[in-house]
Amino acid sequence: MSLERYLREIAAEDKPLRFGALVALSSLSRQELKQFVRTWGGLSAERQRGLLGCLVEMAEENVELDFDSIFLMCLESSDAEVREKAIFGLWEYEDRSLIVTLLGTLGADSSPRVRSAAAGALGKFSLLAEEGKLLPREGQKIREALIRVLRNDEECIEVRRRALEAVAPFNTHVVQQFIRRCYESDELNLRCSSLYAMGRTGEPRWLRHLIKELKSDSPALRFEAANACEEMGDEGAAPHLVPLLDDDDLQVQVAAIQALAEIGGAVASRALRRCARSEDPAVREVALEALENLEGIEDPVAFHYQL
Q1: Do 187 and 219 share a domain, yes or no?
Q2: Residue 223: which domain range?
Q3: pLDDT of 305 over the 50 cut
Q4: Cα–Cα distance between 289 and 269 in angstroms, integer?
Q5: What distance lies between CA 21 and its chain's CA centroid?
Q6: Short-list 58, 70, 60, CA closest to 23
Q7: Which terminus of the chain has a lower count of CB atoms within 10 Å, N or C?
Q8: pLDDT for 303 beyond 70
Q9: Which CATH number belongs to the domain containing residue 241 in this structure?
Q10: Which of 157, 86, 161, 168 minimizes the C-alpha distance to 129?
């Protein structure tokens, strides 16, 4: 079927979006993108949002699908939800040309949700800058823009917390000050982001705070602390993660399993083997996968029956 026929199907708003038609939008040529833009312009806002949401989900589930040209086009949309979804869709897009757009969005977009998404998306470029994969001036512009957001007390919390997470890899003295300030905040979301940021710095000085929060009464803080321990990769965190394998919160359990798999070592291996015997199928599946990655088990299903 030609692209034109798929586009007519997409334009028929009385019919649900079909997977086959959406797959046809992957890796569009310039001419095909022009065809898509003409169809896109005739869609209702609701259809545009639904279509873009489907493309984002599909791209997350299958990295071989490439809708980047559509997502880039949608960054210019007048609809804030479309702009936000477009940024989410570009989660793996590392072309440096996107930096200028994201910086402009962070500084001027009218929607807090879009500014938040832009701040989050700049995080991957912060890592690239610290890895020496960007020009020094590009890294400096990213760092300065994110710090400006953190210094703006009138900016909403969601944007500031994403800016903190994004700027963490730079790990400067100023960044560390903001991490500490957010960690000491009364706002739970800022505290959660401070833990996430601690992990992204890779700075051992934060480990004692992460270990403390693994015992927090808040599942959200335990979850973020476990994730940060995974980022940190310090074997000293392993014994403190083990109790979370019996946590009442499934997300916390999974985070602890993944952190132990990343950290490795004898403590992690023993704990994951025990977890692989869990009666909870969700926990057991994650633990078996973690063991496969940790110990190079070729057949985790057969391994399960040997436990």
Answers
A1: no
A2: 206-307
A3: no
A4: 12
A5: 27
A6: 58
A7: N
A8: no
A9: 1.25.10.10
A10: 168
